[in-house]
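Task 17 of the worksheet. Students: predict the tertiary structure of the chain below and write it out as structure tokens. Keep your answer in the requested format; marks are given for formatting as well as content.
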Amino acid sequence: MRGLGKISEALFRGLRVVDSWIGLPLKAEESLHFRLGWRRSLPVRVSDATALWIHGASVGELEDLAAFFSDAELLAQAGYSPERLVLTASSISSASKLQSWGQELGLRYAGPLPPESSPELEDFFHRLRPDLLVLSHSDIWPRALEEARTALPRGALWLPQRTPEPTALQRACLGGLVRRVGLREPSAAARDVLEVPADFVGNPRIDRIVRRIEAARRRPEHVLEKHGAAPQRGRVSLILGSAWTEDAEMLAQALDILGAEKRRALQLVVFPHEVRNSPVVGGLQRILPEARVLPLEGILLESFRDFTAAFIGGGFRTGLHSVLEPALWERPTLCGPDLRKQPQASSLRDGGLLRTIHRPEELAAQLDLILGGTPETASNRELWQRASAETAARLWNQKGAAERLALLIRSL
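Model answer:
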């Protein structure tokens, strides 16, 4: 472990030298300076009380736990309070969300994980006084975890993406630090991981999604009504959510295969993943001229209400984006083949709700099924909808993960 920490620290030091003398590519430079500027997120003063430290690579990993850490009552059940919460991420994409969480919730610290440097990390632990780490997914930083071994009296609780068979790196960095492992699938419980007990927790993100779905159902008006994009009665409708160019191109090719008549029959609404990137947004509109492209944030989850089906992006590019939202709405869902970023996608596929596609011909066949133009396709569409409802019911039965997490933290 100590050797890995030295290597990681040396790499960070090397990046700083290159940045000073030659310059790094823009994204690498921004990421480096994000981590180096962690002190800008420090509070003016910190109490002597210890803190709970929650870390995830980026917004998605932290969103999985937001139903827990954004609820003061659940934090109290765990033995903490908002002003005793430290929230970190390593990706610069999380910067604005961390800032808003910190301000809205009154957190002790919400900002970058310090760089892989012993002095920086010692200062982080000394100033913020965390006593327990909750690690969401698998963002492994050897030097940070090495310092955590001696700085955290309560060790760490690890919430891996999947039923874990720890990698060599995870075993080296987490072994001896992790005191308990929280599992997402009930069938994976009652086993040891990293030679410590593993307990079923579930995914707290489900609690957060369910609350928003229940609120959306109580509203008389669809969230897209004022944008002129609500699902039209009597018409088959599809949301392409978190869309990249590759997703739109695949969909356009599939629609070309179906032909002009079926293409006109489908109401299509597109939510870009990069809402502030005007060339990307414009490109999506050019690729899918019949679509209503909405570069909006914060309403995709509510938008799935009453749509016939969903197509979630990322599976042809960076890795699939979240499919839990349409799944909990009982929407039959399509996506590309790269599921690695969504640990529950495989079980959704096995349950029949999620269908992965590789080629335009496959997507065209699935869209034809959704359109249900013949008695046979209509019957198959009903089977897909039934499987989606059954899979969604199983997810709804996993509610309560945020409270289970609070009680597990308290038990440590």
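Marker's comment: The radius of gyration is 23 Å. Residues 211-396 form a domain with the Rossmann fold fold (CATH 3.40.50.2000).
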